[in-house]
Design goal:
By secondary structure, the protein is an all-alpha fold. About 75% of the residues lie in helices and about 0% in strands. About 30% of the residues are buried.
């Protein structure tokens, strides 16, 4: 049995798990999803392939875990930012600020790397549900600000998505945030807040 560098076997397993995911994340972002295999991860971590299989059944399982973890982290950060805001306007702005800064920091790169890559239907359904949960604070703030049609939600969400893409492409996050928020405010001008 190899020596462990943690206080307990459980801590060692958690460290190994984290290390495997970190390497898999780097492979996914730099080489794409097809390159994420237990063998490739084993090679870069110095672990044996059978050791990797103790944690993940295959490359798809590694990818699923990475993307789901990143979505959960994103949602948690959004909720913290939005929950600290005092009214619907500041909640909408907090949402925009948070998601664009996440994009600028690379937080969405794992999900973006999967574009066009076939993943299991169960995973796709879970991602769709997490995406709805991710945008819910923004939708809720918009409802409070008087937005009530699907078209308006889609258009305002499209502004945020465009801001995210610009930030992922290296645009100045603060300029993007300011521009997106200004466009949202212009679209909301004259709306009656919901009671």
């Amino acid at each position: 049995m190899p020596k462990i560098k943690a206080g307990t076997v459980q801590e060692h397993r958690e460290q190994q798990h984290s290390r495997l995911l970190s390497v898999a994340r780097e492979i996914l972002i730099t080489e794409g999803p097809r390159a994420v295999t237990p063998g490739a991860v084993a090679k870069l971590t110095g672990m044996s392939r059978p050791a990797v299989y103790q944690y993940f059944d295959n490359g798809v399982a590694l990818i699923e875990h990475l993307v789901l973890d990143d979505f959960e982290d994103s949602i948690e950060a959004i909720e913290q930012a939005v929950d600290s805001a005092t009214d619907a306007h500041t909640r909408a702005h907090a949402y925009v600020n948070n998601v664009i800064n996440q994009a600028a920091s690379g937080m969405h790169r794992t999900a973006s790397a999967l574009t066009g890559f076939p993943m299991p239907e169960s995973f796709n359904k879970e991602i769709a549900q997490l995406h709805l949960k991710q945008i819910e604070p923004f939708v809720r703030a918009l409802r409070e600000l008087g937005v009530n049609s699907h078209i308006e939600f889609a258009l305002l969400g499209g502004l945020v998505e465009t801001g995210v893409r610009l930030a992922e492409a290296g645009g100045d996050p603060q300029r993007i945030i300011d521009g997106v928020c200004a466009q949202i405010e212009a679209a909301l001008a004259g709306k009656s807040p919901a009671n």
